Amino acid sequence: MSSNTDKNEKLRIDKYLWSIRLFKTRSQAAAACDSGKVKCNGDQVKASRQVHVGDEYEVKTEARRWRVKVAALLHNRVQYAEAIKYYIDITPAEELERLQFQASSFHTGKRLSKIGRPTKKDRRDLDDYME
What's the predicted TM-score (pTM) here? Predict the structure, then answer.
């Protein structure tokens, strides 16, 4: 068999998205295609669509919204360090900023200010004020 980057080989979009590690399983990638979460030029694509070098896809995963450009065809799942060489991440800056903001506000383990139960310090201050 010829190399992975041969121009006339056929590769399905679900297999490609799985092999570049946007989805954990190929069936998740296929389900995303079928439910309209994968688009090419604004049009939904089916899982069986052929991938070509230079295609741009908009992919919505649970974690984030991706925009990727196909740099080369990848038929087998490989480690992340290798997989990133097969696509170019062209996700808009505002989407990345939104993710940064979400990460900073939700995953710090601290509650957002003025929301929810008072902290122990707030409680003590309140008790001192009431006395």
Answer: 0.70
Q: What is the strand order of the sheet 87-89 is part of? A: 43-44, 38-40, 56-60, 65-70, 87-89
What pLDDT digit, counting tens, does each position of 21-71 carry? 999 999 999 999 999 999 998 899 999 999 999 999 999 988 888 999 999
Please count the other Cβ atoms lying within 10 Å of the Cβ belonging to residue 4: 15
SS3 86: helix
Residue 46 contacts residue 33 (beta carbons within 8 Å): yes
Amino acid at 5: T
Mind listing the domains of the chain with CATH numbers?
Answer: 13-130 (3.10.290.10)
C-alpha–C-alpha distance, residues 4 and 43, integer Å: 27
d(CA 18, CA 15): 5
DSSP 111: P
- DSSP characters for 55-71? -EEEEE-SS-EEEEEE-
